[in-house]
Amino acid sequence: MTTDNKNNQAGDSILEKPISRRDILRLAGVGGAGLLLGASGVGAIFGAKGSSASVAAKASSEDRIEFYGKHQAGITTPAQDFLMFAAFDLTTNSIDDVRKLFKAWTEASASMAKGEMIGEVNDNLNLPPADTGEAAGLNPSKTTITFGVGPSFFDSRFGLASKRPAALVDLPAFGGDELREEWCGGDIGVQVNANDMQTAFHAIRNLARIARGKAVLRWTQEGFQRTGGADPKGATPRNLMGFKDGTGNPDTKDEALMNDVVWAQSGDGTPWMAGGSYMVVRRIRIRVEVWDRSTLGDQEATFGRHRDSGAPIGSKNEFDSVDLAKKDEKGKPLIPVNSHVALARGNGSVKILRRSYSYSSGMDNRTGQFDAGLLFICYNRDTRKQFIPMQQKLGQMDALNEYIVHNGSAVFACFPGVREGGYIGDTLL
Ligand code: HEM
Fold first, then answer.
1. 11 lines ligand 1 (CB under 6 A)
2. Among 4, 100, 107, 305, which has the minimal tally of Cβ within 10 Å of its Cβ?
3. For the whole model, what pTM was predicted?
4. CB of 285 shorter than 6 A to ligand 1
5. Of the given ranges (39-43, 81-85, 355-359), which has the lowest mean pLDDT?
């Protein structure tokens, strides 16, 4: 990094003028020094009070989702186009450090949800800027940042073992699991969604940077959904198998249903989780090459739905009711009993809220095949009663198993929403 006269003059002029996007990008050019700073350096910059620079393009309120609220955003929020998921491991044993981290993350997340630069943009050419800069000038793009803690957060390090929710269980092994350590677990899980991938990446990158000295990335996964095109806004996206994915989800506008299916309640045994939800993440690789060789008839029988319309087999429209009792002329169920929908639905009494994204992580070098699939994410009020029994059934009998393999897994207790002035996890910490 240079601090010659030329640069110092540039610094002086920045002090006199309002900061423009170009200035911000120029300041970002000295960011390499950030690697040399310890946690206290980042904390000092980040913690400095002052007006955070609003250098994002003027964001319309439609493009913004409020960070603060009764529930965390990103759960019942209509799914945005992109996902950046990250699991972190804490490297500190101090609960006070965890509180500090969660406070700093809260402040940064609230700013990023508004499309603002995080922290105070410093004009010191000898220090790295507080924000990494790549989202400068971009809209907030409906950014949501959703935080949860995994079972390992409640081990002996922080004295929180007695606070671990009974519903935050370690998942049992399921039929067909081929889990790989590199895509499993995490003390903390962060789901970032946005309608711009650069904005989503920026959020995780800055959270990781703020965490320096307190937490490190354990694994990440990017995801996407089909966007735009001729489909009407809000149409069900298609997964990489070409089928509409999300049709049978419970209606997120039905508050009573959400209280039943998604939100932990104060009477559920863990009062600090009331208004929160349990997130299950499964990295599921799809053997797309095998799928692409199967006939349309087999593909539809695998899901129990028609590919084009998304309707249940034997029906016309996507949202026609799923009638598992309907038979063909030979008396065979129209929707095969081992189809994905028949098994996942069962008698309809157990529901989850799915919020999955397709992923493509390049090629599997060992086989020359795509490493592509679904980062399955679901929210439920009690994983023991909802996700687990569902996946036990699917793992054993689902016709879909011929084409998929679960290779990553994690569970997180996602905190209730943060009140303004509060911080992530304050009901627990
Ligand atoms: C790569 C893996 C998966 C793919 C490609 C996939 C795809 C689909 C598709 C196309 C549908 C029909 C349309 C819809 O209702 O959304 C569906 C339904 C459903 N899936 Fe999956 N799924 C996968 C894994 C899972 C897993 C792991 C679970 C939970 C353990 C699950 C639970 C459900 C449920 C609850 C439904 C709705 C059933 C209903 O009530 O109609 N899926 N899935």
1. no
2. 4
3. 0.88
4. no
5. 39-43
The beta-carbon contacts of 108-111 under 8 Å, at least 24 apart in sequence, are 108/46, 108/206, 108/207, 108/210, 109/67, 109/145, 109/203, 109/207, 109/424, 110/67, 110/68, 111/52
Name the residue at shortest CA distance from atom 35 of ligand 1.
344
Q: Indicate whether 286 pLDDT > 80.
A: yes
Question: How confident is the model at residue 119, as a pLDDT?
Answer: 83
pLDDT band, very low/low/confident/very high, at 136 (cuts 50, 70, 90): confident
Q: Is the CB of 428 under 6 A from ligand 1?
A: no
Spacing, Cα 244 to ligand 1 middle (Å): 10
Ligand 1 centroid distance, CA of 54 (Å): 41
- Report the pLDDT value the prediction gives residue 424, as an integer from 0 to 100: 97
What is the structure's pLDDT at 61? Answer: 76
379 Cβ below 6 A of ligand 1? no
pLDDT of residue 126: 87
- pLDDT at residue number 252: 97
Task: Say yes or no: CB of residue 239 within 6 Å of ligand 1.
Answer: yes
Summarised one tens digit per residue, pLDDT across range 224-278 is 997 777 788 889 999 999 999 999 999 999 999 999 999 999 999 999 999 999 9
